[in-house]
Amino acid sequence: MAKKVIFLNTHRLSLTKPPDYLGVLFTQKELKGISTRIRMNNGTYTGINILNEENLKLFSEISKGEHLINGFSNKNIRKNIFKYSVDKIIINKTTRILAKLKAHGIIKKVFKKNKYYLTTKGRKIINSILIYTKRELLT
Predict the structure, then answer these.
(1) What is the pLDDT of residue 14?
(2) Which of 33, 12, 37 is CA-nearest to residue 124?
(3) Mean pLDDT (whole number) for 38-44
(4) SS3 12
């Protein structure tokens, strides 16, 4: 079995500027798709502001590695983003956020369960947004 030699000097990675390969991770069409308003099932869902601090916190939370196997629920998101508030307003807000992400195709709901998973499209978009904003991935 032949061994391959990798030259790391030819591929220098710079952490001071946004990566050049960001355009490869997601296209402008996908970005425009999640940032525009859509109508689905007699409901209107607004676009997602990808640079909003609250949305970035949400993206980093749902892309954590602990949610890969078991998924995440409304309660998990509330606990980590809103400091587990049992206020009715926060519960309803989290439900609306999850419905918006589901309508845009970023997450999918497990049949007959209160769990959600990231779709492949959602993982690709969220990871590239977190790379662009220099957030941690899979913490």
Answers:
(1) 43
(2) 33
(3) 87
(4) coil
